[in-house]
Amino acid sequence: VQGTGGSSAVSKCSAAARGYIQDRFLRLLAGRRRRRAPLIHRGYYIRARAVDHCVQDFLLKTQSLPRTQIVSLGAGFDSLYFRLKDMGLLHHTVVYEVDFPDVASQKATLIKGVKELSALVGDTGGEGLGAITFSGDDYKLLGVDLSELSELERTLEEAGLNNEIPTLFIAEVVLTYMENTRSDALIQWAAERFPRACFLLYEQVQPEDPFGRVMQQHFRQLSTALRSLALYPDCQAQQRRFLGKGWTECSVMDMNEFFTCCIPEDEQRRVQTLEPFDEYEEWHLKCSHYFVLAASKGMEASWTPLSPSVTVPCHAGPVGVAGSVPAAVCAGLSGVPGLRRFGHRSVLIKPNVIVTTGGFGEEDGQHCRVRNFHLLSRHAGHWEAVCVTQNVPDQRWGERLYHTVSRLSDTLALVVGGRTSPSSAGLGMLWLKFPETCGASGPGDVAVELVNLQPAAEAGALRWRHSTSEVTFKGEQYLFVYGGRSALEPVLGDWHFLHAPELSCTAISVEGPVPESRHSHSACGWEGGVLIAGGLGAAEQPLGSVFHLREHEHGFQWQTIETHPPLVPRYSHTAHVHEGKLLLVGGVWFHASSVPGVTVINLMTGLCLNYVINVEHLEWPLMLHNHSSVFLPDEKELLVIGGGGNCFSFGTHLNPEPVLLSLSSILSSR
């Protein structure tokens, strides 16, 4: 547990070095420097922002009072005091920091040895007196185990804490490491002993969904189990906890809601453009698994730092569920390491033959961008998979992620776009050519030929997280490339018609309301046109719109499909059409109380029904984002291949085996 504080300080220091947070003291306190990934920077930015937002609101609301106090529980190597002092915000406030004796002693030694820190705190020689490891006029550093409440109370009183003046308690990922009886006692003690008090809590939530299970496993492996989650698994339970322990007001937000509601739009845009970034799913999942809570009692002016500055749709409400869909491991494909990947594409090139390309996953025992293809074929109801190494080494393949693959015939498919890194340009187009015998006599004799393509419509290819769909206009076949993002544009809203098979760019009139720019949406061919659903918009907010691009006399026309109840906004899902029904599979949304399963939209009536996925027969977390899926109409089954991602600092999760979802019961209903 003590080690988590040092790791946190290093991550905050890295975020500050990249401009996410303004804090010149972190580098003095972190002890060591290590550059973290952009996803980690965003995660620690939102954490620091939430804490600062609430602390500064407390100081603002109490600035007319003669004295106030801040008690930081489990402060570690945090720089809060030094930042507040440097900003001139502690004229009448004393800060008490508490942590394990060893941690407090290390921090005290560090402060004494760094002139820039010791000059700010103004050492008055009170160090070394029992548990008080450092003492200044407005800063006290105490070495106490928080689980020993009587010792904590005695030491705080000895250090000068006055329970009659307004006091803010801060617990930033601290209480969850304690036994619940002890953390509950501390929360109740603070409410009972301090007539005018506020409590700021930041920690984890939602332990039982796939991301939550990976998160819990990570902390268990560090021997720092998250103990609060069993009794307080969601934001509502935490709110009830505080109201039941003596606090009279309590508000709580998960970090998706905090980012959207409490951070100004210009600051959101600043953060979103600091570094090349393409891990939206993991960013939003991380934010849905952490919360900030503000509780108070006895304050003359109501302390409500989590009041939204903007009005947005509620993220926390439950999603209506019409039923469930059973999931089972696809036995024939079990144990194929090359199918453990995300950001890839799978396409049915002929009946019972699927090609899976690209993505990030396992190859030769390593995690990397996957270069090899996999061909999946079914014989007598049994699936097999074989890894196919391209027959000519060709750097133009580029080990790409977030591309599209469109089948043009049994022997020909087109790869459009994709990327290597988020800072690189899109990768253009390539042909995939398959022999006539592909899949006929088992997968063992398959060869795949990559042919470079020089398309006229280069602008249509230099993108990723887009869609490519087959449409028909005046009896001619076209590929419709829509949306996505590029290295220069975080979201695109343009489209291109490529005439098959020569792929010449064709100008075709399109009328109607133009959809909002988006990426990570789904696209399905339907009635000669295409259905676009969901996606991530320009503000990195999930979209809930469904559009139909349909042919009319002089070109195409965008039409909005109204759904009822409204489609829950989502992205990074897959989609299929079957007998007038649009199936949306998985994805990411902001409703932390559940994860997306299968949504069925009746395209005639607009009826929208959500089904959860029954995973009781799976022994591992099923992450349904960045996956691929193939619909098998005869069996009314979905074959889900891959999925997962880099789960913040908790490690990379790859769904270990392909999964079959049986849809027969829901497709036969309304």
TrEMBL record:
Q: Where is the signal peptide?
A: none
**Which keywords has UniProt assigned to this entry?**
Methyltransferase, S-adenosyl-L-methionine, Transferase, tRNA processing
Is S-adenosyl-L-methionine one of the keywords? Answer: yes
InterPro entries on file: Gal_Oxase/kelch_b-propeller, Kelch-typ_b-propeller, Ppm1/Ppm2/Tcmp, SAM-dependent_MTases_sf
Q: Which Gene3D superfamilies match?
A: Kelch-type beta propeller, Vaccinia Virus protein VP39
Query: Where exactly are the transmembrane stretches of this chain?
Result: none
- Pathway of action: tRNA modification; wybutosine-tRNA(Phe) biosynthesis
Q: Which SUPFAM superfamilies does the record match to this protein?
A: Galactose oxidase, central domain, S-adenosyl-L-methionine-dependent methyltransferases
List the molecular function annotations (GO) for this entry: tRNA methyltransferase activity
Function in brief: Probable S-adenosyl-L-methionine-dependent methyltransferase that acts as a component of the wybutosine biosynthesis pathway. Wybutosine is a hyper modified guanosine with a tricyclic base found at the 3'-position adjacent to the anticodon of eukaryotic phenylalanine tRNA. May methylate the carboxyl group of leucine residues to form alpha-leucine ester residues.
UniProt family annotation: Belongs to the methyltransferase superfamily. LCMT family.
Question: Could you describe the subunit structure of this protein?
Answer: Interacts with RNF144B/IBRDC2.
Under PANTHER family, the record lists: TRNA WYBUTOSINE-SYNTHESIZING PROTEIN 4 (PTHR46529:SF1)
- Please report the name of this protein according to its UniProt entry: tRNA wybutosine-synthesizing protein 4
- What's the source species' lineage? Eukaryota, Metazoa, Chordata, Craniata, Vertebrata
- The gene name reads Lcmt2
